[in-house]
Specification:
mainly alpha; 2 helices; about 45% helix
């Protein structure tokens, strides 16, 4: 039986797949490298901020997108 030499990361939360355009992916990668943070952490933070703004009525979604409660 082989054992892995890599450290196993504990993951929490729901897995979710998002596809970004090449431009979005490149910009996200650049920001994350500059700030020394993971892409996942940046995306989680951005989603949290989006949800807060939607909840407080500070942001409207474009036509065709709605918030289900």
């Amino acid at each position: 039986m082989k054992t892995s030499t890599k450290t196993q990361r504990k993951r929490s939360g729901e897995p979710f797949t998002v596809y970004f355009s090449k431009e979005q992916a490149g910009n996200l990668k650049s920001v994350c490298q500059q700030r020394h943070v993971s892409k996942a952490a940046v995306v989680r933070y951005a989603v949290d901020q989006l949800l807060i703004q939607l909840r407080n009525g500070q942001l409207e979604l474009p036509l065709g997108l709605s918030v289900k409660q």
